[in-house]
Design goal:
Structural class: alpha/beta
Strand order of the largest sheet: 3-2-1-4-5-7-6
Order of helices and strands: HEHEHEHEHHHHHHHHEHEHE
Bound molecules: S-adenosylmethionine
Length: 317
């Protein structure tokens, strides 16, 4: 398998993604979350000898790593450090105006998880940052230091679906009054103490939902994804395919809603007697909605456990 453990990040559902996007010689492809380049390598191999690939990542360190990993493909590869919400402007500016396939592999890579300085892991003793793009926006430690109880509760409830959001928010506000919560391990410890004992004994770490919520807030994940999906649709040629891998239900729900809306004709509210929207179907869902990783992949790469793959094909205008 390309992208084995020695490469640091195992590309998830790579065979399914390749079957869905089916790149071939000359295909124009976009990997909007190039990360460690695992999927990109497979795409470039399949689109040899001349298929160009545009790789984006919000994380400058990921772009630098991908540049090294993809160096052997020379001028076929264009890399940009950018948020995929700006796909609609970044891709045409890089010469990718109409493309055959687009991949969004959401979330974070194993490199980011392992980087103590980013704070993605509960055990990290470095700063609680949680930004994909460390050059922009507000870090998680700023939110944890400044948000009031009501705001923290809302973030944990809305983005983490955390049943103990109120208790955790109160604990954060209480604890930060004496010592700042500026590292991931300290936040994890505060959450562990705040939740009831049975929750502490579960297999999933009690702080999982808190970290998910803060990561979503810091990276505006639920805002940027719909923009990226819309932009992707605008770039795809008829017959071109979009593949989206998501790792939590909030993101998967957005992708599902998008595909459901774009496969339909009229999207007027049901109470309207006649269509006024003029909406035309723009996508055809392809394969299972959603696809899930095979048991063998989950056993080999537990990180793939929560993956959901949705694929859709651009219809002719
Ligand atoms: C799961 S990893 C991708 C791994 C890659 N497919 C591979 O095989 O190596 C997700 C990547 O998406 C990037 N990312 C997350 N949100 C982003 C956004 N809004 N815009 C651009 N990149 C983003 C992260 O920085 C991370 O490197």
């Amino acid at each position: 398998m390309v992208g084995d453990r020695s490469e640091g990040h195992l590309p998830v559902m790579v065979e399914e993604v390749m079957a869905a996007l089916s790149p071939h010689a000359g295909s124009f492809m976009v990997d909007a979350t190039v990360g460690g380049g695992g999927h990109a390598v497979r795409i470039l191999e399949a689109s040899a000898p001349d298929g160009p690939l545009l790789g984006l990542d919000a994380d400058p360190a990921a772009v630098a790593r991908a540049a090294v990993r993809l160096r052997q493909y020379g001028a076929r590869v264009t890399l940009r450090q950018a948020n995929f919400e700006s796909l609609g402007t970044v891709a045409p500016a890089a010469g990718f105006e109409a493309v055959d396939g687009i991949l969004l592999d959401l979330g974070l890579s194993s490199y980011q998880l392992a980087d103590e300085a980013r704070g993605f892991s509960f055990r990290a003793t470095g700063p609680l940052d949680l930004r994909f793009d460390v050059t922009a926006g507000r870090s998680a430690s700023a939110i944890v230091a400044e948000a009031d109880t009501a705001e923290l509760t809302r973030v944990l409830r809305e983005y983490g679906e955390e049943p103990f959001a109120g208790r955790i928010a109160q604990a954060i506000v209480r604890e930060r009054a004496t010592t700042p919560i500026s590292t991931a391990d300290r936040l994890a410890a505060v959450v562990v103490r705040a939740v009831p004992a049975p929750r502490q004994r579960r297999r999933i770490h009690p702080a999982t939902r808190t970290f998910q919520a803060l990561r979503i807030a810091v990276n505006r994940e639920l805002e940027v994804l719909p923009r990226a999906l819309e932009a992707a649709l605008g770039l795809l040629r008829p017959g071109g395919r979009l593949a989206v891998l998501s790792y939590h239900s909030l993101e998967d729900r957005l992708v599902k809603r998008f595909v459901t809306r774009e496969r339909r004709g009229c999207i007027c509210p049901p109470e309207l007697p006649v269509c006024v929207c003029g909406h035309q179907p723009r996508l055809r869902p392809v394969g299972p909605q959603p696809g899930r990783p095979a048991a063998a992949e989950v056993a080999a790469n537990p990180r793939s456990r929560s993956a959901r793959l949705r694929v859709a094909e651009r219809l002719a205008a």
